[in-house]
Design goal:
- The protein has 9 helices and no strands.
- It is mostly helical and 219 residues long.
């Protein structure tokens, strides 16, 4: 166990594994969904902070902040605009009545929305990009993934990672498109920070859209 924790893959895989396990737990208890999502986000954020020293030397490439944000916002505009025509892998998750909570202004409702924002804008972009593009995309190229520079393009690795990323999202078609954009940006910038920023900007844009339009099904 200690050897595994100290291994190079742990900081990339563990936060994602914990997040997915807690997400499954949340879906098993829909009535407690609002606070379980918050607990999930806080626990994973705590793990990321604990692992932070191990990320310091992982990414030294410059981060094009403005372009990453603009590309993320553009990607989420496409996600929203093309949604009616995109294939899905199943029904969307409706485990918390955001609409009723938002209208009533209940404490659980407000907290649920804040927790959702924390998870979507802060936790999810870091967890997903570390795993999908920081770890899996390089591991497919070579099991000793740490020997592969960030952003290395190899067609098989690129497309397998994109499809795998999309398969964990109900909005499969939209996620494929988003994964292609994020993967391209990762390869172009050679920076995991840049693609995390892109992902965070996209999720923030979606959150603002959802809160304004009340199209809760996107959450």
């Amino acid at each position: 166990m200690k050897r595994w924790i100290q291994g190079p893959g742990f900081p990339f895989v563990a936060p994602f594994a914990l997040f997915m396990a807690l997400l499954y737990l949340r879906q098993c208890f829909p009535q407690q969904s609002w606070w379980l999502y918050g607990v999930c986000s806080l626990l994973v954020l705590g793990l990321l902070l604990w692992l932070r020293p191990r990320y310091h030397d992982q990414d030294s490439a410059p981060v094009p902040v403005r372009n990453s944000i603009l590309l993320g916002l553009g990607a989420i505009v496409l996600w929203i605009a093309l949604d009616p025509w995109m294939p899905r892998t199943g029904p969307r998750d409706h485990t918390f009545p955001y609409e009723a909570a938002f209208q009533l202004g209940t404490v659980p409702g407000v907290l649920a929305i804040l927790f959702r924002m924390l998870g979507a804008v802060v936790v999810v972009p870091i967890v997903e990009e570390l795993f999908w593009r920081g770890y899996l995309m390089r591991t497919i190229i070579k099991p000793e993934f740490e020997e592969i520079p960030l952003g290395t393009f190899q067609p098989l690795s690129f497309y397998i990672t994109t499809i795998a990323f999309a398969l964990v999202h109900v909005e499969f078609g939209s996620a494929i498109l988003f994964g292609l954009i994020a993967g391209w940006w990762f390869c172009r910038t050679k920076s995991i920070k840049a693609v995390i920023l892109l992902h965070a900007a996209a999720n923030l844009g979606l959150a603002v859209y959802v809160l304004i339009t009340r199209n809760w099904f996107f959450w």
